[in-house]
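Example (one chain per record):
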Amino acid sequence: MSKSKNKQQEQRNEYRNFRVVFFYCILIILLPVSTFFATKYVLFDGYFQLSSVSSNIYAAVAAVIALHIALGLYIYRAYFDSGPSDQATKLAQKQD
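Predicted structure:
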């Protein structure tokens, strides 16, 4: 039975890792794109009424900043996340 529990725990850990990586992949793709278009049309074209070239440049800078924020969040999560998988492994070892 312990082998089946270990296998189920490994599958849960793999699924959890997949969800985290998938979330950050979507965030890294969608956040800069949505930031570019939102800042371009709403902020720079609508509110500040800049020229087309200027609004494109400023929106691109905002998108790059958003991309760096998303990448920083991913790196922070990967570096500092000990996660429940480590805790579950420690508990399983204590019970054996």
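Caption: The chain has a mean pLDDT of 88.
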